[in-house]
């Protein structure tokens, strides 16, 4: 969209205000509400904001123990560079539009720790190899009858779920109770021109899963981010509350499964009827890369202290570095029953993951497999939970996962050392905050510290 088209679009939709949306490492949306005049006149760089938005943890504490070459020597400014192709009407707010943006420095150069720019860079790396990707996310979220303020007063505990209190998935009587909320969610998604395949009552009490159709990686992540934002905004407007945190209650947790496939010249390349299990050589090498980088990727797809509480045997989340055809107990599930459906489902991710970082890490792992023509380990046989103790396990806490990422030369090379080291530092910081501030960091169940830190914001 050029400037003339922008003015025409703003005129046609009677826009007076534009909201910018850029993403922090922790996946939070940050931005400004700008007058139309200011929005148009600050292009192409976009509005300036303090670099503190990328320099604080989810509790509002500054990262002062480490810095980064992307920052000025003091607390300075960065810009939010708008992507005008994402400009859409903001549902429920007449005269207001919303626009995704990338974090750039004062000269307009991308920041190495901007999640959205990172994903675009990884997509370009894939393009150099002659491939494009399709990505689709399954979003899980829990709905509660209390408003956010009421939930806060209760310490985010003993909340009333919207739906049956019993752990039964696909229950239509629960979906009926959720339907008023979800009708408003899907109405707003339609306004934002975000396609959706369907939604259903999920396993945890009050849990909903919403499925998005496959599209290019950047669009998939923009849409996933906006879907999560819509859920929160509908909850605020209807005096309800929602959370994406991995384990907010004692029951099942929230995950985010990421499906993806590759194409070459517009044709799928994961399926080959002449190969065992119809798995093409491209898919085999790609999957081998995912397996080789899986332990390091865990940190980027399970980002919080709370994320790892999902990772228990027979608790739906994967616990072992495994893959198999049509096996939902493994970390990676393959679907190769026909050419149109052939894809990989990455099942490790927690509900509060940053989709841009997660998809970038997954693509980076696959790219390493293609470049190195890695050999694929054997698939898991049977259920991948409850295996003998001598069998490998995925990292199951934030520190071990950060160590695994730091040690992964493949991911570091493709994602960039500055991004990886900054992320690792923030995860170690998160562990320090937990052990310093939580009254009982050795607790086996979800702590008040986790609920207060993650329920509402991530």
- The number of helical runs is 13
Q: What Rg is obtained from the alpha carbons, in whole angstroms?
A: 21 Å
CATH class of the largest domain: Alpha Beta
CA-to-CA gap between the ends?
A: 32 Å
The shape is globular
Query: Can you give the helix content as a percent range?
Result: 25-40%
Segments where pLDDT lies below 50 for 5+ residues? none
Mean pLDDT score? 95
Strand-residue proportion: 15-25%
Overall number of domains: 2
CATH-derived topology of the largest domain? Creatine Kinase, Chain A, domain 2
| Structure classification | alpha+beta
What's the order of the H and E elements? HEEEHEEEEHEHHEEHEEEHHEEEHHHHH
Q: Report the strand count.
A: 16
- The CATH superfamily of the largest domain turns out to be Glutamine synthetase/guanido kinase, catalytic domain
What's the CATH architecture of the largest domain?
A: 2-Layer Sandwich
Profile the largest sheet.
Answer: 9 strands, mixed
Please tell me about this protein's structure.
The structure is a single chain. By secondary structure, this protein is an alpha+beta fold. 35% of the residues lie in helices and 17% in strands. It has 13 helices and 16 strands. The protein has helices at residues 3-12, 36-41, 115-128, 148-153, 172-191, 217-237, 281-292, 294-301, 355-372, 398-406, 409-415, 417-437, 448-454, and strands at residues 17-23, 29-30, 33-35, 48-50, 77-82, 88-89, 96-104, 132-144, 198-201, 207-211, 241-243, 256-264, 267-268, 323-325, 332-335, 343-346. The strands form two sheets. Strands 8, 9, 10, 11, 12, 13, 14, 15 and 16 form a nine-stranded mixed β-sheet that branches. Strands 1, 2, 3, 4, 5, 6 and 7 form a seven-stranded mixed β-sheet that branches. 47% of the residues are buried.
């Amino acid at each position: 969209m050029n400037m003339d088209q922008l003015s025409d679009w703003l005129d046609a939709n009677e826009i007076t205000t534009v909201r910018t949306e850029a993403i922090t490492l922790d996946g939070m949306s940050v931005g400004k509400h700008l007058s139309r005049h200011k929005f148009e006149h600050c292009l192409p760089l976009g509005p300036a904001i303090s670099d503190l938005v990328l320099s604080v943890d989810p509790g509002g504490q500054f990262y002062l123990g480490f810095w980064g070459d992307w920052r000025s020597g003091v607390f300075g400014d960065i810009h939010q560079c708008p992507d005008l192709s994402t400009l859409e009407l903001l549902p429920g707010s007449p005269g207001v539009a919303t626009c995704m943006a990338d974090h750039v420095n004062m000269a307009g150069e991308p920041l190495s720790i901007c999640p959205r720019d990172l994903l675009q860079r990884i997509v370009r790396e894939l393009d150099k190899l002659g491939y494009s990707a399709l990505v689709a996310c399954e979003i899980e979220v829990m709905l509660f009858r209390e408003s956010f303020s009421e939930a806060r007063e209760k310490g985010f505990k003993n909340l009333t779920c919207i739906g049956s209190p019993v752990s039964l998935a696909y229950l239509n009587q629960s979906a009926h109770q959720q339907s008023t909320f979800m009708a408003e969610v899907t109405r707003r998604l339609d306004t934002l021109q975000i396609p959706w395949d369907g939604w259903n009552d999920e396993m945890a009490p009050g849990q909903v899963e919403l499925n998005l159709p496959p599209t290019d990686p950047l669009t998939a992540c923009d849409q996933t981010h906006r879907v999560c934002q819509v859920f929160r905004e509908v909850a605020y407007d209807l005096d309800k509350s929602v959370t994406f945190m991995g384990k907010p209650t004692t029951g099942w947790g929230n995950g985010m499964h990421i499906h993806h496939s590759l194409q070459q010249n517009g044709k799928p390349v994961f399926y080959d009827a002449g190969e065992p299990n119809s798995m093409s050589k491209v898919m085999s090498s790609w999957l081998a890369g995912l397996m080789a980088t899986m332990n390091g990727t865990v940190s980027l797809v399970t980002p919080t202290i709370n994320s790892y509480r999902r990772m228990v045997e027979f608790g739906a989340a994967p616990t072992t570095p495994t893959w198999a055809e049509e096996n939902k107990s493994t970390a990676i599930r393959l679907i190769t029953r026909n050419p149109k459906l052939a894809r990989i489902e990455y099942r490790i991710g927690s509900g509060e993951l940053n989709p841009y970082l997660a998809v970038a890490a997954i693509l980076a792992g696959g790219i390493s497999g293609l470049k190195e023509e890695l050999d694929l380990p054997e698939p898991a046989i049977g259920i991948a939970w409850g295996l003998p103790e001598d069998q490998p396990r995925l990292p199951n806490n934030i520190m071990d996962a950060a160590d695994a990422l730091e040690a992964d030369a493949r991911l570091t090379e493709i994602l960039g050392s500055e991004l990886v080291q900054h992320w690792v530092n923030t995860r170690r910081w998160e562990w320090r905050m937990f052990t310093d501030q939580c009254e009982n960091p050795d607790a086996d169940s979800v702590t008040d510290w986790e609920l207060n830190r993650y329920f509402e914001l991530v």
